[in-house]
Design goal:
The chain has 19 helices and 20 strands. By secondary structure, the chain is an alpha/beta fold. It folds into four domains: about 120 residues, Tetrapyrrole methylase, N-terminal domain (Cobalt-precorrin-4 Transmethylase, domain 1, 3-Layer(aba) Sandwich), CATH 3.40.1010; about 130 residues, Tetrapyrrole methylase, C-terminal domain (Methyltransferase, Cobalt-precorrin-4 Transmethylase, Domain 2); about 120 residues, 3-Layer(aba) Sandwich (Rossmann fold); about 120 residues, Rossmann fold (3-Layer(aba) Sandwich). It has a five-stranded parallel sheet with strand order 3-2-4-1-5, with helices on both faces. A five-stranded mixed sheet has the order 6-7-10-8-9, with helices on both faces. It has a five-stranded parallel sheet with strand order 12-11-18-19-20, sandwiched between helices. Helix 9 links the parallel strand 11 and strand 12. Helix 5 crosses helix 6. It is elongated.
């Protein structure tokens, strides 16, 4: 693409679950200058856009009355592209299925703007799949028809949907998938019944499919509307009509997952949160990445640089985190030091993750405390080896002083602390969204992996954080969390993320909570 010319990408964001977005869509987002997104786009998807990108909310559902007018969106796309910007028009589901992506593509073509269409997973397919409803089946439905049901006939317009033909087709082992019919479900189903469809034909409605708020109601053509009204189902809802819908009772799988319906907020750094979030999603949870810390260089490298010049003078180097290892090695590389300079010292790692980070550089650890906290260092090394020894502790700029104090009290000849990084609050956190979710009871658990994550979450979210249930990785973090007003419900015996995940799973398994239908915009 000519760097002087802009381009618009009409991108499907998928049906709601953030891990259903395509690799191509992620690539286009990562290179976007402008992202114009719809109400149905998961906020978790927006994290793929660079921090420098301009994010523009195109509005809520049409019935909310605050959606940006389509013509204005078209003009916005054209104007941004003409300024040479890479524009991602991010639409829920697929841009060309039951949306106005086709109209937007026409407007771009008429204006001479280059564009690309990136397909997405449509809710028309995904919502039934996550509800356990196959749209085609050799014995129950050999074809499927997709239709919208939002036409407003009260204004005198004659329906353009051939309901009689659809009813006749569905009677011949077909499946109907109806979108945008929430407000008119009763009249749509009545039309099908009046056109000859048996009232006892299986029918289902799936609200917020693929997300933690998913609710599925299985009934019949004659009873579905009444049951949905009683359950107060609203948009977005996908309706499925046909014999195949009845298979849900046997094939429902998403709701059977152990963490289905649980909204769990992860406060680790963005890089560290991704893997943990994926593991939670694999168990059915709605994992919300809300980093409350970012890793930044220390205010000064003077202490670390001085220590690196004298590495042969230390008997022990104690690493307290994997991040400390990475930043320590990175600084050595920047200053041109050789890893062999570490051969004079024995290495101690607090926790297996820290030891694993050292092993990445073929650095062997002499000892790992049985308990992954500073207080266990001296017993692990042995008091005799501590006495008279010289220690270097590369760590975060702000950290507990327990370890240096205890080493000195145990007779260490020298204890040098060198800052290799500091934690700061993120600059672009989605704080308003998390605060709203916390205030309305939409968060089931907050995962805290350090005292900093607990303190920053409480500061960023404010009073809404009080009383939230939390999972703390260790006793120090748990103590801080309690001081911040959290209710610590989960604390693993081993202070690792793997054990934390197991403890979260065990908590929800042994203390089940009723699934409440909720959704945050």
């Amino acid at each position: 693409m000519d760097k002087g010319r802009g381009r618009v990408y009409l991108v499907g964001a998928g049906p709601g679950a953030p891990d259903l977005i395509s690799l191509r869509a992620i690539d286009r987002l990562r290179n976007a200058d402008v992202v114009i997104y719809d109400y149905l786009v998961s906020p978790e998807v927006l994290r793929f856009a660079p921090e420098s990108a301009e994010l523009i909310f195109a509005g809520r559902r049409g019935d909310k009355g605050d959606r940006i007018e389509q013509g204005a969106i078209n003009r916005m796309l054209i104007a941004s592209a003409r300024r040479g910007r890479s524009v991602v028009r991010l639409k829920g589901g697929d841009p060309f299925i039951f949306g106005r992506g086709g109209e937007e593509a026409q407007a771009l073509a008429d204006a001479g703007i280059e564009f690309e269409v990136v397909p997405g997973v449509s809710s028309a397919v995904a919502a039934p799949a996550f509800a356990g409803i196959p749209l085609t089946h050799r014995h129950y439905g050999s074809f499927v028809t997709f239709v919208t049901g939002h036409e407003d006939e009260s204004k005198g317009a004659e329906s353009t949907v051939p309901w009689s033909d659809l009813a006749r087709a569905a009677r011949s082992r077909g499946t109907l998938v109806i979108l945008m019919a929430t407000a008119r479900m009763r009249s749509v189903l009545a039309r099908l019944a009046a056109s000859g469809m048996r009232p006892d034909t299986p029918a289902a409605a799936v609200q917020w499919g693929t997300t933690a708020a998913q609710v599925t109601i299985l009934a019949t053509v004659g009873t579905l509307a009444e049951q949905c009204e009683a359950a107060k189902l609203g948009a977005p809802t996908v309706v499925v009509v046909g014999e195949a819908a009845a298979l849900r009772e046997k094939l429902k799988w998403f709701e059977a997952m152990p963490l289905f319906g649980k909204r769990i907020v992860i406060t680790r750094t963005r890089v560290a949160a991704a893997d943990f979030a994926q593991k939670l999603r694999a168990l059915g949870a709605d994992a919300i990445e809300f980093p409350t810390i970012e890793i930044a260089p220390p205010s000064s490298y003077s202490a670390l640089d001085g220590a690196l010049e004298r590495l042969n003078q230390f008997d022990w180097i104690v690493f307290t985190s994997a991040t400390g290892v990475e930043r320590f090695i990175d600084r050595m590389r920047t200053l041109g030091h050789d890893l062999r300079a570490l051969s004079h010292a024995s290495l101690c790692a607090i926790g297996p993750a820290t030891a694993s980070a050292l092993a990445t550089y073929a650095l062997r650890v002499a000892t790992i405390p049985s308990e992954y906290r500073a207080e266990a260092i001296i017993p692990a090394i042995g008091k005799r080896r501590v006495r008279g020894a010289r220690f270097l502790i590369p760590r975060a700029q702000v950290a507990r002083e327990v370890l240096p104090q205890e080493l000195r009290a145990a007779g260490a000849k020298l204890v040098e602390v060198a800052s290799v990084y500091r934690t700061v609050k993120p600059r672009h956190a989605d704080t308003a969204r998390i605060r709203a979710m916390a205030s309305s009871g939409q968060i089931d658990l907050v995962v805290l992996t350090s005292s900093s994550t607990a303190e920053n979450f409480a500061e960023m979210v404010g009073s809404a954080a009080k009383g939230l249930k939390a999972a703390a990785i260790g006793p120090i973090t748990a103590e801080t969390a309690k001081d911040c007003g959290f209710l610590v419900k989960v604390q693993p015996e081993e202070y690792t993320t793997a054990s934390l995940l197991d403890a979260i799973f065990a908590y929800f398994r042994t203390e089940p909570q009723p699934h409440v239908r909720r959704h945050s915009s």
